[in-house]
Amino acid sequence: MKKFLSTFAYAKPKVEKKVQSLELLTAQNSQNPSSGLCGAKTSNLCLILFLNGKGEALIEQYKPLAEQFVNDPVSLTYVYTKDEPGLAK
Asked: Do the domain assignments include residue 20?
């Protein structure tokens, strides 16, 4: 039993993807299973930020949030609600 349990106790947990930065989520890439963004086949927790404004300065303020999840299996994406009203529903 010790031999069996030691394989799990000393194994590193598998992390599918580390968050490097925020990624834009659009209707097109949300339905594309190969995009890896919050798809049905990803095992990551998906955190979606719905942004009313637009611009690099708005995204920059969320970079510290992305850095908090750098070692966790979290996909951090954002949606411009005016550009993608279907995703905001």
From this structure: yes
Q: Sign (positive/negative) of CA torsion 79, 84, 85, 86?
A: negative
The total of structural domains in the chain comes to 1
**What tokens were used for 27?**
């209707």
Backbone conformation region of residue 11, classed left if phi is above 0, alpha if psi is from -120 to 50, else beta: beta
Q: What is the pLDDT along the chain (89 residues), one digit of tens a residue?
A: 787 777 777 777 665 554 455 677 776 666 655 555 676 677 778 888 888 888 888 888 888 888 888 788 887 888 888 887 777 66
The answer to whether residues 42 and 69 touch, using CB atoms and an 8 Å cutoff, is: no
Domain that holds residue 60: 16-80
